[in-house]
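To assess whether ligand presence alters the predicted conformation, the chain was also submitted together with magnesium ion. Input:
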Amino acid sequence: MKLRFAPYTLKFKRPFSIAHGSRDSTPVVFTRLEHNGMFGYGEASMPPYLGENHDTVLGFLSKAEKIIQQFSDPNEIEIILSEIDKIEKGNIAAKASVDIALHDLVGKIKNKSYHEVFGADKQKNLFTAYTIPIDEPEGIFDRVNEAKDYKLLKVKLGSADDKKIIQEIRNHTDKKIIVDANEGWNDKYFALEMAHWLSERNVLFIEQPMPKENMDDTAWLTSQSPIPIIADEAVQRFSDLEKVKGVYSGINIKLMKCTGLNEAHKMILQARKYGMKIMIGCMSETSCGVSAAAQLAPLVDWIDLDGPLLIKEDYFDGVKFSEGKIILNDLPGIGVTPTSSLSFS
Ligand code: MG
């Protein structure tokens, strides 16, 4: 097998203002695995706060390239990915880009879509959340209007304006809301008061209300809260599941946090054994990363895969969005086709 890769920068339609700072673009690296004239595609997307960037990903993939060359059978997914994982610690998004390309390639060899390989029912209604990018109550009416196709709104909280923002949204719509506090609340009594207040305003759950280190306070909050408390920053890879069991009601899985589809699928099966709720999310990604994650969407409780809707230029055709739902196709692998703007020169 041969591995190729290329760095790109995705521009956002609207700059993001979040707890980790304001951004108008994000670096990504696309990968391509080749075997017997067939191609599998992958993507690494690196939000700045996880420590990866173009240089680290390109450096890691140069090492991965040498390992990939030693394998002649792409079907040896477990062995190949465990060798890739051993190259260096961290580099999660870089590892995910290899994992995604490998699944895409193997799906094409089997001539099966990966949702079919996972036994996931694509006929289910796959409603995705749509992020309302706000940091102040002004302009909310326009943002709510832009999200008119979407049944589930995601709102980032964690500032002094939290109640004002939710109240202002409620002045315009009674759609269900999910809230991501991004570790923004430090006091467990305040967090519980917010959970009750949000629950009374038809908020479905709260993602990462408190800092990930505050395990005891979070376990207390989860036991008292009228709505589920979901781990995002607190859970990255499979090995973190044991730690958050009994502390959170559920987990947010992202391919860029957990090294890709292979581990994400195992996390879903294990979290179900623990009786936990599951959400699948994404970083700022093109239709490549999001179509990969969408292969697992029928297996989870909530879907937050709006990445391609928020960027100016996509580099792939993949899953479609219609009436607030993700529509999976039956193309083999992860179901993507690169656009003419993508090149691995
Ligand atoms: Mg989050």
